[in-house]
Write a structure and sequence with these properties.
51% helix, Arc Repressor Mutant, subunit A, 5 strands, two-stranded antiparallel sheet, mainly alpha, three-stranded antiparallel sheet
């Protein structure tokens, strides 16, 4: 698809692109608006973004009529029926692909850390943040990765999923 065809606002072109966005939401939920845009651009063979492309992608995403769930400064889209508060797994990036921390929902970070804590039978808080980040495929603890993991830890703490033992180690609450 050429850039001109992509920018064509005909009903047929728009319906095709909205269907693509909906497919991304169904397959990758929870998915950030940024990732949806990248997937649409890749599928259409558009290598570089500009303001017109970004505006068109924003329109296409809004046209899905899927209500986004803001998380920090990022809009995440969940497929119908998914509940962010009941999310109980995390995704590992495919070989050679690294997800940006901004494109990972904090619920996934919480799940990754919970698994790391279970595997270690207790772990210091900072080590849990790092171990969870590694499970998500994040190799460096950048400021955005740290923010993601801290938000995930807040989810675990707010849900009373973890507790500190007498040695200051995080434990999964039902394991102690």
């Amino acid at each position: 698809m050429t850039e001109e065809e992509f920018l064509n606002k005909s009903t047929q072109a728009t319906a095709y692109l909205v269907a693509m966005a909906n497919k991304v939401i169904l397959e990758e939920s929870p998915v950030s608006a940024n990732t949806i845009g990248i997937r649409i651009m890749e599928a259409c063979g558009i290598a570089k973004s500009n303001q017109k492309i970004r505006d068109r992608i924003e329109y296409i995403i809004r046209a899905t009529r899927v209500k986004p769930a803001p998380e920090g400064g990022t809009l995440f889209f969940w497929k119908s029926g998914d509940d962010p508060m009941a999310y109980d797994f995390y995704r590992v990036s495919p070989e050679g692909e690294v997800r940006s921390p901004e494109d990972i929902h904090p619920s996934e970070a919480a799940c990754a850390m919970l698994e790391a804590i279970k595997e270690q039978f207790g772990i210091p808080r900072d080590a849990a943040l790092v171990a969870g980040a590694h499970k998500l495929g994040l190799t460096r603890m950048t400021p955005s990765a740290k923010t993601l993991m801290e938000t995930g830890m807040e989810i675990l703490e707010n849900e009373n999923a973890v507790t500190l033992d007498s040695n200051g180690m995080l434990q999964v609450k039902n394991m102690i």
